[in-house]
């Protein structure tokens, strides 16, 4: 297993709840990339009515899956920018899970997706994650005279 460096130089590592949320988000990103590969193979193989539709959907899943994967990796390595992307992805997954479970009557797929999104949101909005996101682990008060990006 690849173990990411816990945090950028000089920045304390993220709390365990943030790293756990990052792991969930990475798994979602990997799932998106796997779906992209499957759609690509199906599109090239002629399983879709139009090759353009299959390949276009595959490219969409590559873009979204890569972004979600990057957000999860950022959370696992203590970079705060991944939190916003991860929260957005989870909020977008909730209606998808509802549609899959209720609209398509595929409870076996919709319920786990919904549970995973709710768990990730719960972890990202936990007290420790909120303190971390607010920069509560930064040394000293913010200083406008400092040129660093974490100074304000």
UniProtKB/TrEMBL annotation:
Transmembrane recorded as keyword: yes
Keywords, in A-Z order: Membrane, Transmembrane, Transmembrane helix
Spans through the membrane: 21-45, 57-76, 83-101, 107-125
The name this protein goes by in its record: Integral membrane protein
Native species: Mycobacterium spongiae
Organism taxonomic ancestry: Bacteria, Bacillati, Actinomycetota, Actinomycetes, Mycobacteriales
